[in-house]
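User: Show me sequence and structure for the first protein, then do the same for the second.

Assistant: Starting with the first protein.
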Amino acid sequence: QVQLVESGGGLVQAGGSLRLSCVASGSIVSINRMGWYRQDPGKQRELVAGITSGGITNYADSVKGRFTISRDNAKNTVYLQMNSLKPEDTAVYYCNADMFTWSRGSKNYWGQGTQVTVSS
C-alpha cells in the first residue's frame, strides 16, 4: 500500500514559522515530482510549491520568498519550510507525488492533509 503521510501542521502566530514533512511509503520504485497544495473551505485546492526529482522548484506567487520546498530522495520525503506566515496562509496543506510502482505503474497520490492555522 503506497501512501503519503504529512506532519508538522499546527497553530502559529503571524510572522512565525512551521515546517511540514511528507513521507512516502510502500512498494515505491521511483518518485518523480512532489509538491504541496493547500485548500481553504469553499475554495479550490491550489498549488503552493513543487519540486522535481532533480531539484527544480516552482512556487505560487503568494509564497515566493517566504516558503521553501526541498526533498530528501533517500528518505522519500518532501519538506515545506514556511516562514513569515500570514493569516491568509491558513488552510489544509496536502502533499502530492507522482510515483511509480510495479503493481500500478505511474500514478498520482495525495496525502490526507495537515491543518495550518495562522492567527493574527
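Switching to the second protein now.
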Amino acid sequence: QVQLVESGGGSVQAGGSLRLSCAASGSIISINDMGWYRQAPGKQRELVATITRGGSGNYVDSVKGRFTISRDNAKNTVYLQMNSLKPEDTAAYYCNAGGVVTIRTVIGSAWGQGTQVTVSS
C-alpha cells in the first residue's frame, strides 16, 4: 500500500510564502511523475504543477513565476515552493504520484489526503 503524506500548509497573508512537502512510502522502487493539484470550495480540482522523474517541471499559467516544484527521488518526496501568494491561491492542495513501482505491484496513481493553504488579503 502506497501512502502520500503532505505537510507545510497553513495561513499566510498575501505576498507571503509557504513550502509544501509530500513524502511517499510503501516499499517503493521508483515513481514516474509527481505533482500538486488544488481544489477550492465549490470548484473542480485543478493541476498546479507536475515534475518528471528527471526533474522537468510543468505549471499552470496562474502560478508560473511564483511557484517552483522540485523532488528528491532518493526520498520519494516532492516539494512545492509557493511565493508571492495571492488570495486566489487559497485551496486544499493534494499531492499525486503517477507510475509508482513497488516491490509488489505498479500503481497507476496515488493521492495524498490534502493540506489546506489559506491566503488572506
